Known about the structure:
Elements: H1 2-9, H2 14-29, H3 35-47, H4 49-55, H5 60-81, H6 87-100, H7 113-120, H8 122-129, H9 134-155, H10 162-186, H11 195-212, H12 214-218, H13 230-233, H14 249-264, H15 267-275, H16 280-300, H17 315-324, H18 328-343, H19 353-369, H20 389-407, E1 419-422, E2 431-432, E3 448-452, E4 460-466, E5 469-475, E6 479-484, H21 496-501, E7 508-509
Parallel strand pairs: 2-7
Antiparallel strand pairs: 1-6, 3-6, 4-5
Helix pairs in contact: 2-4, 2-17, 3-4, 3-5, 3-8, 5-7, 5-8, 5-9, 5-10, 6-9, 9-10, 10-11, 11-14, 11-15, 11-16, 14-19, 16-18, 18-19
Amino acid sequence: MGSLRAILRHPDDLYPMVKLKLAVRSAEKQIPAEPHWAFCYSMLHKVSRSFGLVIQQLDTDLRDAVCIFYLVLRALDTVEDDTSIATEVKVPILMAFHRHIYDREWHFSCGTKEYKVLMDEFHHVSTAFLELGRGYQEAIEDITMKMGAGMAKFICKEVETIDDYDEYCHYVAGLVGLGLSKLFHASGKEDLATDVLSNSMGLFLQKTNIIRDYLEDINEIPKSRMFWPRQIWSKYVNKLEDLKYEENSVKAVQCLNDMVTNALTHVEDCLKYMSDLRDPAIFRFCAIPQIMAIGTLALCYNNIQVFRGVVKMRRGLTAKVIDRTKTMSDVYGAFYDFSRMLKSKVDDNDPNARKTNKCLETILKTCRDSGTLNQRKSYIIQSKPQYSPTLIAVIFIILAILLAYLSAARPANICKNGFSGQLLVIKSAIEVNFCNEYYTWWHKPMAIFEFQCIALDPIYTILYQTNNLTRVADVFYYVLRLSHESQSAYCKAKWISAVRLGICAVSSVGNLHVDAVNI
Length: 519
């Protein structure tokens, strides 16, 4: 119901959401044939679907290297996070992990769910790692060694000061930025970025995650380690867990704003790093998570909900970011919009208001000085409504009908024979199936079943399926027609109400085998 409400409030989210869903499905099907590579890419999509999507855009050699780099560090992180492992066992594993990646036989059982599978079958990752180019191997080994040593250091060390906070984030995320920069350079597609800029790329993402995940981490059983620095939270409460209690709401929000302001200090470096990138695929790979981070901080700032529940960008906005982010002007536009959104929430009475505003003014000035803001599509400002209330009401009715259908039991068999002609379908968020249930219109046989699809969006998509290959193309208007070859069987129309309205919003039509698809 929440997704439906979000679509009604933001109908222009629908198209990028459908595109994203199709792209994710396509990426998940691009699994290599070799067993070890098949395991690695399958596991990548399980532990991070969004990362698995973005990584598919990279060239093959670099894509393989980044995939293995990501899984190695995920495995390292799994060891660090498993509180059931005794310290005297955990520390040596972390310190030696960079050597284990060369051992095809090594594995260590820990973690839960998909992470346990990753650790139990880590030999697949090692086998794939050993097939990478030597330059990639050296970069991954170096970062794994440094990260393992840093994690081991903080197993027995609390995050007391802001310097500790920066050091911990460097070990677990800044080094990821350094490693990726080395991989990009080893591919020959990018110059080697400075360590300062690479480090900031990682710190900005890591600090955003630490802020956003406060409640989940503080409530975790067994108790998770926390990385909010005492130097910040001790100004507001006596114990870090006190921030979640309602009586401390004012102090909690002030502490939150202090943490967000600290994270914003890395934005200038991030913008500089991204502006230096040349390869379009690498650029998108780096830029999309950064935009997601500034968007998340804009939502978290001055928001008590961080201490009450989950705060994250809605799916439609995430899909928009992925769909729109192609050039540096898109990045400047997104950072400008989300920084303005954040600035509008700054309370002059907040203890850190002056520092926060100073950070934001610097970011906004950098974005304005780029001279590209007039090219952007705003994420937060709508000059005029793009959809009339009537159209939204129609969409609501259609979605209600489709949801009612989807809640019913689906037939086991889908028609696979007896159809010829054209299958042209306008996109939306719902699935329609023509099934092995026979239908007569006005109680008489029908040789041809035909109805018209009417536009619901400024941009349309033909979705057609032939031999299990789904393709997408932008169009304006089409008719769906199914011609029956045999009068002994008929299709049941699940959308009688929609047909009578002259409207049908669909995204796909089962696994129908179509003789011809004409565009």
